[in-house]
Amino acid sequence: MTSVDYTRAAVREEPAASETPLLSLDSVSCEYKLDGGGRFRAVDGVSLQLGHSEVLGLVGESGCGKSTLAKLICGLEKPAGGQISFAGSPVRALGLKKRAKSLLGIQMVFQNPYASLNPRRRIREQLEDALALDPSGRWSVESLLDAVDLPANAAQRYSHSFSGGQRQRIAIARALAAGPKVLVGDEPIASLDAFLQARIARMMRDLAINSGASMIFISHDLSVVRDIADRVAVMEAGRIVEVAPTEQIWSSPEHPYTKKLLAAIPKVDGKGIIPG
Fold first, then answer.
1. H or E element that contains 205
2. Degrees, nearest 5: CA angle 156-119-102
3. How many CA within 13 A on the CB side of residue 257?
4. Helix residue ranges per DSSP H, 132-190
5. Where would I find the ABC transporter domain in this sequence (predicted)?
6. pLDDT tens across 160-212, in order?
7. What DSSP state is assigned to residue 76?
8. What phi and psi values does residue 119 have, to the nearest 5 degrees?
């Protein structure tokens, strides 16, 4: 049996070579200063690609760097090294500057729906702000609400009158309103109850793909990621240790950390064999 070099990420399939990746990360790192001196490398030399009309799941335990990587992709954090490219243009950190138009094609759905919406503005106003960023006119406030299974009169209400699941659907609608080419979901189902998690994840996938966007879906719930992702990237301690098509991850994982994550999943759906 051929031995596997676990010092490097096992990357077994990338977007088709015939097309330029929509999003590309090349040896990207991010560091934070520690209290009392020293630095902590939250993201360590990550290289990753996202194809057109693709859903990429990013999984790993809490604290492994998933959310930091999401912020780097959206320009909310400044990399310590490496380069991120979106549609052929470099992604640069926002700082105090207004977001460049070239980066409006990347939109994020955050983990906490209670904090991501403005409680002082009606839902209609918040959706209209996002709609103004997309000149295509493909959406209206009413069609966005309908797409996320909310009634048209929800537009007149404030966010405090909605449940957590409804607020997250509104946050998804707002992200879609801007006409993104890449939708980044940073643990978007973590604060929801188990009944809603799979439903919201599937909704995000369907809406992204049907609108012509790609999606990076970040989660520690591998069962949900298995249901919606085309490929899965596994992250451990700031590094991507394995990338492969979703079913290959489940049927023949190569990295010990991937095997550890899969072994921790209760086998309830009868799909294949979860390696131990």
1. helix 194-210
2. 90
3. 20
4. 141-147, 164-177
5. 23-262
6. 999 999 999 999 999 999 999 999 999 999 888 888 899 999 999 999 999 99
7. S
8. -70, -10
pTM (predicted TM-score): 0.88
- pLDDT of amino acid 55: 98
Residue 1 has pLDDT above 80, yes or no: no
Sheet strands (E) in 34-143: 39-50, 55-59, 81-86, 89-90, 106-109
Distance CA 176, CA 144 (A): 8
DSSP 3-state of 2: coil
Q: Three-state DSSP class for 129?
A: helix
**Sequence spans of domains, the chain:** 54-75+97-263
Provide the residue type at 104 as one letter: L
Q: CATH 3.30.70.60: does it fit domain 54-75+97-263?
A: no
Cβ atoms of 110 and 183 closer than 8 Å: no
pLDDT at residue 213, as a whole number: 96
CA angle 44, 245, 67 (to 5 degrees): 35
Which residues partner with 26 through β-bridges? 83
Q: Are strands 231-236 and 55-59 parallel, antiparallel or unpaired?
A: parallel
Task: Please tell me what DSSP assigns to residue 100.
Answer: P
Tokens of 45: 């030399």
Longest alpha-carbon distance in the chain = 64
DSSP 212-247: T-EEEEEES-HHHHHHH-SEEEEEETTEEEEEEEHH
- HSE toward the beta carbon, residue 208, CA cutoff 13 A: 32
What SS3 class is residue 131? helix
Neighbouring-strand partners of residue 11: 243
Structure-token pair, residue 29:
């790192």
